Amino acid sequence: MEQERSGVLVLAGTPIGDVDDAPPRLAAELAAADVVAAEDTRRLRRLAQALGAEVPGRVVSYFEGNEAARTGELVRALLDGSRVLLVTDAGMPSVSDPGYRLVEAAVAEGVRVTAVPGPSAVLTALALSGLPVDRFCFEGFLPRKAGERAGRLRDLAAEPRTLVFFESPHRIADALAAMADAFGADRRAAVCRELTKTYEEIRRGPLAELAAWAQDGVRGEITVVVAGAPPADPSAVGPEALADLVAARESAGQPRKEAIAAVAAELGVPKRDVFDAVVAAKKSR
Fold first, then answer.
1. Which stretch of DSSP H or E encloses residue 29?
2. Which pTM value belongs to this model?
3. What is the pLDDT of residue 232?
């Protein structure tokens, strides 16, 4: 078992809009930290003032531009026994924000890492979307270049889980149009704008309809939630395709018996049919 050092890294959630949503523990952690690493130090000062919190520790910037260089400095502070608090502009550190490198480095050095849970645009948008939330995956920001974006979306077209994306106001119209092309015009989605803020707006509908709406311009912080791909029609999947699906799972390390059961459950076909397809494919080789 790894020996933990005396310092501790605390990842703290911050409000995604309404400052009253700040975790109750945040003010206490700001006061207790020896070092506060903030994505934007000015925003941190404004947040602390709004919370009526003191920040007696050293405040340093920690953002995308200096994350790689500053990580080592913060790890040294942790190894010296400091309590380091990491906050980003909104939401939880590491979720499409700085933090992953520092957590990885701290864990590698045996430093304790803990969190002050707080608001999350991902979970808030999922809850408000009206789409299935029992299974979902977070894809962050899509590539900026049209070709790379289209390729990423093609790879996700058959994903059965609900998808969550972040997007910027000046790219949202093109992103929604690209999603409609890749996923189908009728795929259900929700555009969640300015969550928990004064002008919060949740727009739900088919992707083509949302893409047309976005052409007029959309402002603010945006999270897009898209329904997963509908289940495949079992009657449209032939024996060769069934065998290929099992083979793909076996290549990924899943035992054949489990792979057959998983494919049968996913497609809603009898396990015997999948087994027979695998046997037939093996004989034909």
1. helix 26-32
2. 0.78
3. 66
